[in-house]
Amino acid sequence: MPQNNAKPLELTGSMQFELEASSPGADGKPALPRFRMVAYTGVPMRVAGWRHPVVVDLAGLAIPSQSRPIRFGHDAGSGVGHTDSIRVEGGQLVASGIVSRDTAAAKEVVASSKNGFPWQASIGAGVEEFEFVKENQSVMVNGRSYTGPVNVVRKATLGEISFVDLGADAQTSASVQAKREKQEMDGIDNGGVAVTTDTTTASATTAPLDTAAAAIRANALAETSRIAAIRRICDGKYDGIEALAIRDGWDATRCELEVLRASRPKAPSVPAIHVPDNSLSGTILEAACMLTARLGDVEKCYDEQTLEQASRRFRGGIGLQELLLEAAWANGYTGRNFRDSRSVLRFAFARQGFAFARDIEAGFSTIDIGGILSSVTNKFLLEGFFSVERTWRNICAVRNVSDFKTVTSYRLIGADTYEMVQPGGELKHGTLGNESYSNKADTFGLMLSIDRRDIINDDLGAITTVPRKLGRGSGLKINDVFWTKFLDNAAFFTAGNKNYIAGADTALSIDGLTKCETTFMDQVDSDGKPIGVMPQILLVPTALSAIGTQLFKSLEIRDTTANTKFPVANPHQGKFRSEVSRYLSNTKYTGNSAKAWYLLADPADLPVIEVAFLNGQESPTIETAEADFNVLGIQMRGYHDFGVALQDLRGGVKSKGEA
């Protein structure tokens, strides 16, 4: 896979070098020497900083311009000349140009070439993209196939070309062939460097070198010896040390010391150890409480990691003391046990007004035990709330109110039907009649406490039992208020309102249900027109539960007595959903009856009764706090804001079920 890389690359290859002194110019001065070199042969090279050999894909080498600087040893301060031609020929990078710089380095290159020094060439390129070929894999580059491991530079930009005395490819070489006027010496083949010049130029280059040139040669020789010593010490076994030593200018002594250190026996490798995250959070404590209390569907409330941490940290379950201590420690408590229970509770609940509260605000990571307990207890509160009868919810309308004021709703009467639109497109207005219905929410609540004995006994069940009781209490209270209002209906269901029937023929049966259905469907609005709403719900006490279910589900009802014969077919099968409530026949409520039953409309269409909830909150709320000073323990309070009121008398019919 190609990779982006921004580091420079220096690759060294063999050079064919020609110096030519042209005829003097118009000003009488001799022309500058020219050179020709093979800057890169296209083969893999050992390059400092790269662990494996590097080969440049010449097809991806960008040449910004034909004029590139020629330097000595990639040193910007040791210029030699510039190129006037760079091209790729036969899988090699070939450059030619002019020795145009008047520097000691330029003189050194010309003089040493004349003396037969085997210069090599090195390209300086910026790598933009390279590909690493793994071991035993092959790649085709520059018309040749190479086997990994090898780095293939797919994109690079040529910066400069340098003369070097020792390149990365030890097998390359260069030789010199000097030419004078009318005199020729045999050149050395095998990719050598050829130098040609006239008598004037030869005479100039054979002059004694100045001190700077001598210094360059001495430095080059010292560098060559240093690199050779480093490679001999590393012996191809420590590529990283070798590359670092060459790049940073280490001497042989330091390199040998680093190799010695690297060659020492290493301690046996130890498998990587995963250190789990043991940090404690409020969510983990909350999950631990749920697991200990065996709450159903706990997996839906917390993610897998949270449940795993809670299970691992509290393997045997968490106790109430441990829960409070963990919260207290997170809030700065320094004690190690529950002996000072008052302090533990103060820190756990982090009540304002205590000295430690300032420390918490100054930077302690706190855990809100009140929030944890409220979250835990709320789930068990809902279990208790939903554990009681909820028939009321299936037969009532629900209203959302924003405060405790009385709210009034109105029902369209009179001209509430569509009228034909006359030419001109004017629509007639409907009218709001005088039929109005009111309701209001009140607050119902209870406070319970977990006392000091429960905490000392480390009874976590206390924080699950108490909220269940509060939830159940709320559910029972809403049932009590609802059915008290519903059954106190002597003035609501009357014969005068045409929503009440009585007599022996009103007992729950096929005939009795038929009579009640007829009464419901014969109801009219204030204009004397049918209300247009169909009955949907059959509400019965527990004594009539069986017959109510039969009338809803059975295809036929048989009576085998001699005097009574019912048709086999049940005409009411599937018509009216049966709802059963034990409150209808309970003697504690005014208007109770074990024989009376009701046929009601869908509450979404025409409700007989309505329940209003403050801010739409249908379930109770529970809050937890440290108990007051005169009480040792934890207080929990539950409250519910709702109200119940009868609504539209046309929404149902009551059948007495007896004479």
Description:
- With 659 residues, this protein is of the alpha/beta class.
- Helix content is 28%, strand content 26%.
- It is built from 16 helices and 27 strands.
- Strands 1, 2, 3, 4, 5, 6, 7, 8, 9 and 12 form a ten-stranded mixed beta sheet that branches.
- It is elongated.
What are the salient characteristics of this protein?
alpha/beta, five-stranded mixed beta sheet, 659 residues, 27 strands, ten-stranded mixed beta sheet, single chain
Q: Nutshell version of this structure?
A:
This protein is an alpha/beta fold. The chain contains 16 helices and 27 strands. The longest helix is centred in the C-terminal third of the chain and has 26 residues, at 462-487.
The SS-based structural class is alpha/beta
Rg on CA atoms, Å: 50 Å
Q: What is the average per-residue confidence, as pLDDT, rounded to a whole number?
A: 78
Unreliable parts:
169-209, 351-365
**Cα separation of the termini:** 93 Å
> How much of the sequence is in beta strands?
25-35%
Count the beta strands. 27
Major β-sheet annotation: 10 strands, mixed
User: How many helices in DSSP terms?
Assistant: 16
Shape: elongated
Helix content bin: 25-40%
Please specify the SSE layout and strand pairing.
Elements: E1 2-4, E2 8-13, E3 34-40, E4 54-56, E5 61-62, E6 69-72, E7 75-89, E8 92-98, H1 104-114, E9 120-133, E10 138-141, E11 144-147, E12 150-164, E13 178-180, E14 183-184, E15 195-196, H2 199-205, H3 211-234, H4 239-248, H5 252-263, H6 282-292, H7 304-313, H8 320-330, H9 341-349, H10 355-362, H11 369-385, H12 391-395, E16 397-401, E17 407-413, E18 431-439, E19 442-451, H13 452-456, H14 462-487, E20 500-501, H15 510-521, E21 535-540, H16 545-553, E22 577-580, E23 597-601, E24 609-614, E25 621-626, E26 633-646, E27 652-655
Parallel strand pairs: 4-12, 5-12, 6-12, 13-15, 16-24, 20-27, 21-22
Antiparallel strand pairs: 1-9, 2-9, 3-8, 6-7, 7-8, 9-12, 10-11, 13-14, 17-18, 19-26, 21-23, 23-27, 24-26, 25-26
Helix pairs in contact: 1-3, 3-4, 3-5, 6-7, 6-11, 8-9, 11-14
